[in-house]
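Worked problem 6 (solution included).
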Amino acid sequence: MFEAFDALVLARIQFAFTVSFHFIFPAFSIGLASYLMVLEALWLRTGREVYLDLFRFWVKIFAIAFAMGVVSGIVMSYQFGTNWSVFSDRAGPVIGPLMAYEVLTAFFLEAGFLGVMLFGMERVGKGLHFAATCMVALGTFISAFWILSVNSWMHTPTGFAINDVGQFVPAAGWLEIIFNPSFPYRLVHTVTAAYLTTSLAIGAVGAWHLLRDRTEPHARIMFSMAMWMAAIVAPLQIVVGDLHGLNTLEHQPAKVMAMEGHYDSHPDGAPLILFGIPNEAEKRVDAAIEIPKLSSLILKHDPDAPLAGLDTVPDSEEPPVPIVFWSFRVMVGLGMLMLALGMFSLAARVRGKLYEWTLLHRFALAMGPAGFVAVIAGWITTEVGRQPYTVYGHLRTADSVSPLDASAVGTSLVAFVVVYFAVFGFGTWYILRLMAKGAQPHEPKLEDDAPIRTAGITPGPAQQPEGEREQ
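Solution. The predicted structure is:
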């Protein structure tokens, strides 16, 4: 059945599939944890029950998304030992401790306070409960810090040596490994994308309910807060993305050449190719729609600055241009739409029509999934653009895979596809069902919500109310 593929191709497809599923949930939970912290802070400061209702509504969704993120992350990590054992052996002395730091700091912090945040509001008091919510939000950020440090080191490896058996080992101190050249840019870019993704999802929920009832107070607050975030963060993300692109040009120029579709060098200024069809065989972009010299202006801040193309890179070192070219355009195109939504919402706010303009609400509703699509497109651009390496410039992907038969990898891939779509498909459907229902006045606590209890998210026996423990 899998004779047409080799183990390397199937292992790459399997990892791409599982990481794409996994990345959706942290991209949502990172921003949602901070949103919950803000909601609870507003409730404590103002005493308005509407903020508590929104907190209890979104904490249910957070609990499900967080659980699916943990489960999908554990499954994904097993592949390092099964499909990528050579990579794990050679890079393990560097990335192993960093992953351990993530568990010891972020995961334990989240696990230690998550139960208090979910079930402890009536048990530990308002102040301690808010502290627990803050710790969960901090934990999600720390988790992103370590994971992105590992990933960035694979793109811009520093502070290492290679020992006699071919393993990467620390050589210049851990700070140089952790704070490698691309890490600060990737961290800010990814975390900002997570906040933007969450704001678009919340804004879509608010817009959905405003389209049904413009006077609904929960929907109005959700939509207003989300649109403020979109208006502020979308332009900020464009600036951060530009800085990240300049850093990538410095350290991974072949990736930027693929993103731009520059098969040929341009000594007198490179055009910006808006759209086209990359032709790998002929090394050109067919039917290109381009703006002269704009790529040099963006990347070098000089319209006449020369830019090298893929003609300066050996064929064996080139990333797959069509994938990187189109995923980059999907990410940037959606980013422009996010900016347009933010500016549209500002215009409506100035005119006093934020809750009145149906076109704005429909636009926000349509943009609900845009953040998730954009982060996946960005991740594809980053990871496929790194090829043919797992550790850029030092360890090729073809040399990282485990010595497995294609049939074994293919069988596990099919199993993953079936199980993931069944389990995570149901979880996503349930989240959408909760979103469609919306926040209610005097929203029930998590442990009192029957549908959530049916989904298996309940407090442990020691946390249950007195009446339930006596039963």
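Discussion: Residues 71 and 187 are 23 Å apart (CA to CA).
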